[in-house]
Give the backbone structure.
Amino acid sequence: MLMIRLRRMGSNKRPVYRVVVSDRRQTPTAAVLEEVGFYNPRTVPADVRLDRERVEYWVARGAKLSPTVKSLFDKSKS
């Protein structure tokens, strides 16, 4: 099953995340099918960039959103 989830990037104690589509059975650092967004929690306000069309495309094909990505997706609607 496909999962849309966060992949941690950045250096120690300075995390930034990429929102990626990957196989749920693999680790988040394994190969990904597509990168669909970016999240930087260290800025005020947090920088969230999501390609909504691509996220909806993958959800239509059976991908599930992780709880964190779901909350980011809902917050970015407004």
About this structure: The longest strand covers residues 2-11. The CA atoms of residues 65 and 71 lie 9 Å apart.
